[in-house]
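$ run holo --ligand "zinc ion" --emit tokens
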Amino acid sequence: MDTIAEQYVKLVLALGQHDADYVDAYYGPPEWKKAAESSKSDPARIESSAVELVSALAGEREPADEMQRLRLHYLQRQLSALVARVRMLKGAKLSFDDESRALYDAVAPTLPESHFQEILDRLADRFPGSGPLVDRYDAFRRNFVVPREKLDAVFQRAIQACRERTVRHMTLPADERFTVEYVTGKSWSGYNWYQGGFRSLIQVNTDLPVYIDRAVDLACHEGYPGHHVYNALLEKHLVKDRGWVEFTVYPLFSPQSLIAEGTANFGIEVAFPGRERVDFERTVLFPAAGLDASRAGEYYDVQAMVEQLAYAGNEAARRYINGRIDAAEATRWLERYALMPRDRAAQRVRFFDQYRSYVINYNLGKDMVRRFIESRGGTPDKPAKRWEEFEKLISSPRLPSGLE
Ligand SMILES: [Zn+2]
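-- output --
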């Protein structure tokens, strides 16, 4: 399997030459990257090599050891996702659901407008008045914008709290750390670039107003116990301890992303269970941002309702990718059903253009991770067990289909 793992890494690097977003992280041998850059294998060759590796792996005996078995299935599934991605680059047209199954090993449920309308009706009662609901909600939310000059201080406080909570429950590599940069002109709101050696670069996009809830969301999601910890634990347990070279590369359009995004989002609830989040916001972050702390409870009650619209973004993306609606209609759909103001909705449609069915990894991924961890006893009333199962999941090569 080590030989196939090495060939897999080289194929991911080769495909990265044709797809700028594909290789999200790489910290394996630098000469492999140089070789990929200089040889520039064509997509057809990458595809046939990957197909060969998939059939070679199909001939492998099922290992008795669970981690070895997870490794075998992981390599098989990551490689078939690579084949699907090459075919897409060669012009293959997949429906949204076929694409997410091929790339992320999962399909998001299809929900009708009526599902979202019920939630919107409750929000309309909360924000009575005339005009579109999104405008009324947005007017409320504008009271909770973090002033640009306070953003870094607020974000650093959130990172510190997320880290403290994480290290209370899991052992991180001694010299792990990350740096934070503020950027503009991106289709995403935050990004973790893992650099190997237990280091990350986290970028926060300031194109649009940053609301107070983004501080903990981003600190947990990109940092602790999210992407930074996930990548550091994979490097520690799988690359350094076991010598599994396939984890030195992270192909973005692959099943690994559902686990990465799902655990990063679920990690927010693991780090701040129940009322702990709003207590922390009221006592620490709202004052640091200069916001009225007496309104923290009210704000998070509304956010909990809006959170129920999470799957509306998937619906917009599915219709858009399937060609049923155009970019302008997708923007309007997000305004109406996901309550995104016009500029945020437009940014999200640019994200659909760049990342397509990747969107399911956030909300479906989070729900799948939650069900998996709770099915193993990590229920909200057992926080220690919840952390333990969370750590096990982010230290292993489990696939989305293996969460069920
Ligand atoms: Zn993420």
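-- notes --
The radius of gyration is 21 Å.
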